[in-house]
Amino acid sequence: MWKIQWQDKKELSLARQIFLSLRERILAGQLAAGERMPSTRELAGSLGVSRNTVCEAYDMLLAEGFTVSRQGAPTRIARDVCLDYKPDGVATAPVKPEAGTPVWDFATGRPDITLFPWKLWNKMLGEAAGQLPPGQWGYTSPQGYELLCGEIACWLLRSRGMLVKPADIFITAGATQAFYLLVGLLHKTGAPFVLENPSHPAMYTVITDRGYPVQWLEVDEQGAIVETLTESAVSAVYVTPSHQFPLGGILPAGRRAALIRLARDNDFYIIEDDYDGEFRYAGPAISPLYSLDASHVIYVGTFSKTLFPALRLGFVILPKPLQEKWRHYRKYMDVQNPVLEQAALTAFLRTRAMDKHIRRMRRSYGEKRSCFLQAVQEHFADSVCPWGDASGLHVALQFPGAEFGERFVEESRAAGLGIRPVNRLYPSLHEQHRDKLLLGYGHLNAGQIQEGMSALRRLMERGDYGYVTRGS
User: Fold this and answer.
1) Alpha-carbon distance 456 to 152, whole Å?
2) Strands (DSSP E) found in 158-289
3) Where does the HTH gntR-type domain lie (predicted)?
4) What's the pTM value of the predicted model, to 2 decimals?
């Protein structure tokens, strides 16, 4: 019973190994509460170690409360320290295996990180580590690395035509942290946050997890239908005007002006999420909503799609009245981002490596987009309508007459396809947009796109989803 499988680790003493072995048995219920422990001499003889070694192990058990001892009485197991005791004959519930990775994963929001210039990036990380002054390795401003804010302002001018002061830029750990902070910053008691319907589930989750109310803006081919905003008292309005997520519409000038007028008249802020505006394949980048009214629009940007998701760097452009409160919130959330990555990104922007990388990725994604649309045409002809294909890394495909529900999700997963119906982005299933699937292609190669579309065609042919496949 008392045998111990010794570990060949010099850093782990024999006494510590005895303690860990006995503790494991106590926690598992193999040594019951009140059970007498063998004497130190008896256990030492059984294990072939010195008595002092066993005494040291017993002292550890006693110090942490796993055993109790009185002078002249044997050491016993303490009460209420068992974690995993299960009576004999009681079967444990089987662990449900996790769903396997899809063979053809059309997940959205995934850039092709194989094309990122890793060698250059690692060089810039090394140079930043050697050049940063000592003061930057301590606690700094919740705003972020000052030089990075300046380079982001220059980048926004080059890529978007935006005139932004570096002092108004605040670095975040990606866009999700920006949303989390903004929801706390902008909430008004009893006033809902207004979201596009459908929209990215992250913003909805951040709001509803805090118990705040939500009102919906309906969406069509051109983005949010501003006229469906019926509340005058709102906490804030969240929109994706340059490439509506997930349907891909570009908010026209008339709707932009109407939304800004509402914000001015009713004293609320608009949160503009520009999550993939760099990748536009027909014409120049769309001008941000922020350019029309910097006093009522909060611009949120991220480098997760342009560089790589693990970088966890994004930014917000904040109107002056919100900046002091933002600093307070950020200070007591996590103070600041790691400075090394900020310094490397500063160099990446300053040397125009970012510009070169974006041009390269735009060409690559443009080729993948063409391959994707060609595969759609090949397998479904003109019976499927793409939405939002002019920019970004995903497309919404409309299958007229189809209804994609939970059964489609299960059957597509069984077929090796990672595809999400658009209506799963809603807080509950709605009738609208039930005929659309959301497919990301940025991280896939041409072969994966073709094979995945072929697998989707086979699934649609044998599945009863209300859509009759046609095409060559």
Assistant:
1) 41
2) 169-172, 193-197, 214-220, 223-224, 236-239, 269-273
3) 12-80
4) 0.81
